[in-house]
Amino acid sequence: MSRRELSRHDRFEEVSPEVGELDEVALSDALADDPDEALGLLADLTGATDERLRALARRIAARLVVELARTGPARRRGVGKVRSLPYRPDGGDIDLDASLDGLLGPGAVDAEQLRVRSWVRPGTALCLLVDRSGSMGGAPLATAAVAAAAVAMRAPTDYSVLAFGADVVVAKGQDAVRPAELVVNDLLSLRGHGTTDLTAGLWAARAQLERSRAARPIAVLLSDCRATVPGDVVGAAAALTELWIVAPESDRADADALAGAVGARLVTVEGPSSVPAAFARLTDA
User: Fold this and answer.
1) Which residues 6+ apart lie within 8 Å of 284 measured at CB?
2) pLDDT tens digit string along 234-250?
3) 92: Cβ–Cβ under 8 A, 6 or more apart, which residues?
4) Where in 144-279 does DSSP place strands (E)?
5) pTM
6) What domains can you pick out in the chain, each with its CATH number?
7) Which of 192, 207, 216 is nearest to 265 (CA)?
8) Cα separation, 73 vs 277, whole angstroms
């Protein structure tokens, strides 16, 4: 984006008074006054035609977005179940019924035949599916970046991030190992365009989650859920084990309809700064 295009943001001249400059104090002030507008400006700066400004913005944006995602409550570990597991000294109470052979056999107790009863918490895998169709920049782009960081915070070893429009772009695969800040930067480099193939995006999310061994695979759809490419959206959504929808508060009608059709959990956001609280509502429900 040119400086002329970026000047549509009220605080642009303060944050970048000269070519190649980014005033972090002015940016901090803007974040304090209106975090959503400031994050939208920062997201647009990551696509600036000014190379130095773009590089500075990407470095700062990734750090701020990850810090913002951490402001939400700690990730819940899920409800555990008591299971019988192979013995280890710190593993839990001896499972007497399953360990009789090891306890009553001749000679010394055979540890290899012992079992313990212990709480096991199910793993969770997340796949964030970001709608990048139409006009994606400013606050919507920042919202997507914060959502990616929030997913990384909640399932750091088992998550993926996809962006869909006319096609599907993989920002991070389910079993890929990448720092959250790099994933955020990759997402910020995307710009919206084209149609909305929601069906293809949902099937791609399922394919990613099938690569996980987690007990609870969850697709998180960040979208208004308005498809412009024909397809069986409801069928693709219903094929997911679990679907969470994060929709814009100002444009939620189609998201409400899809959530009602497939029993998905739905929350809305007003801007990027409300994403951590939205994820907290999802995980606490």
Assistant:
1) 73, 76
2) 999 999 999 999 999 98
3) 85, 116, 117, 118, 119
4) 159-164, 168-172, 216-222, 243-248, 265-269
5) 0.79
6) 3-69 (no CATH), 81-120 (no CATH), 124-284 (3.40.50.410)
7) 216
8) 8
